[in-house]
Amino acid sequence: MTITAYPDAALRRPWAALPFWLSLTMVPVIWLGAVLGGAWVLLVPAYAWLGYSALDLLTGEEERNADPNRRDGLGWYRAITLIWAPMQFVTLFGLIFYATRADHLTPLALWGLFFGVGVVCGTIGINYSHELMHQKPRLDRWLGDILLSMVLYSHFRSEHLLVHHRYVATPRDPVTARYNEGFHRFFPRVLWQCLTSALGAERDMLARRKLPAWHRSNPFWRYAALQGGMLALAMALGGWLGLVLFLVQAFTAIWQLELVNYVEHYGLTRRHLGDGKYEPVRPHHSWNSAQKASNWLLINLQRHSDHHYKPDRPFPLLQTYGDDEAPQLPAGYPVMTAAAMVPPVWRRMMNPRVREWRRKHYPDIADWSAYKTASNPLPR
């Protein structure tokens, strides 16, 4: 892969951002499935996984990088992340109101429909909240919190900003998947550890200010209020069935998020320097994927190597890397998340790549046992 510079003038044109607006097409697709019913409720999962896997094959890789230091001319890129929260809110609760009163939707169709809603809220909603939480404007951060509350995963903000970015690729990061750890072992572990690590990180921040964990400035109070409001609204619009459907989509969205987390860092570790110290984060500590179409859908999330290297860099400016600087996934996230659900397939695809990564970046490390089991000393 040969990396080239993206023409600066081209990035300024409004239509340059247009491919990233493809995520909005998820909304009419999910409504079409709801109206048609039957097997049509599976339109969204088919569109997200099969459709974008096919588009990746057709469009290939994006090997160009924008100037990472620019900050003007990005309004059309930011706009998509700002309008998504109200769109998702109307779609989610509109579907709860509609589906609980639709005679043509069987119980199985209802489950399939809200599984699809969860795919939308996880693939797009949580991903956009991830972009928003890293930005400085208060509006962006509030919209990020609202998106996370719609899937009952508000603590992801605390865990991601205070734990994951600081401790990625070390034993203290819950979402760095260990070598040979299958997703079905990873998922229940990470659900519990992310919550406890987020609570601990916020408690420790308050303690440094000599404040108790239950102080009103603890964002968990805000998280609880927002999530409680979402649950109450689902109940008000759809009764107990509406509440169950809300929980189905929330669980699906969380599963989608953690599938992506699993893929992004599987088997990659930072060198332990001794005495609880670890080397700084570099691009080679996250998997990179340059597939063009799935990066449109995921607003460059697959340029994850650069995101961890420069976490506050807006998504249009994230850089892709060649093989010499960052490890490359063999396909985009739609294919890789599907593979992760079948551990023998996943290990066959990824374990040789992890071993090659070790030989390339750490040829002097002979014993990887502590890295494999995450039993190195915890970072200080």
Quick summary:
The chain is an all-alpha fold.
Strand and helix layout:
Elements lengths: L3 E2 L2 H5 L13 H11 L6 H17 L4 E2 L9 H25 L7 H27 L4 H12 L6 H12 L15 H26 L10 H47 L6 E3 L2 E2 L13 H6 L6 H6 L23 H8 L2 H19 L7 H4 L8
Parallel strand pairs: 1-2
Antiparallel strand pairs: 3-4
Helix pairs in contact: 2-3, 2-5, 3-5, 4-5, 4-6, 4-9, 5-6, 5-9, 6-9, 7-8, 8-9, 9-12
Query: Strand sequence of the main sheet, in spatial order?
Result: 1-2
Low confidence ranges: none
Strand residues, percent: under 5%
Coarse shape:
globular
Note the total helix count: 14
SSE arrangement, N to C: EHHHEHHHHHHEEHHHHH
Instruction: Find the structural class using helix and strand composition.
Output: mainly alpha
What does this structure look like?
The longest helix is centred in the middle third of the chain and has 47 residues, at 219-265. 59% of the residues lie in helices and 2% in strands. A hairpin with a 2-residue loop joins strand 3 (272-274) and strand 4 (277-278). The radius of gyration is 21 Å and the shape is globular. It is mostly helical and 380 residues long. It is built from 14 helices and four strands. It has one domain (4-372). The chain crosses the membrane at residues 29-55, 76-99, 105-128, 231-255.
Descriptive key words:
380 residues, two-stranded antiparallel ribbon, 14 helices, 59% helix, globular, AlkB/XylM, cell membrane, iron
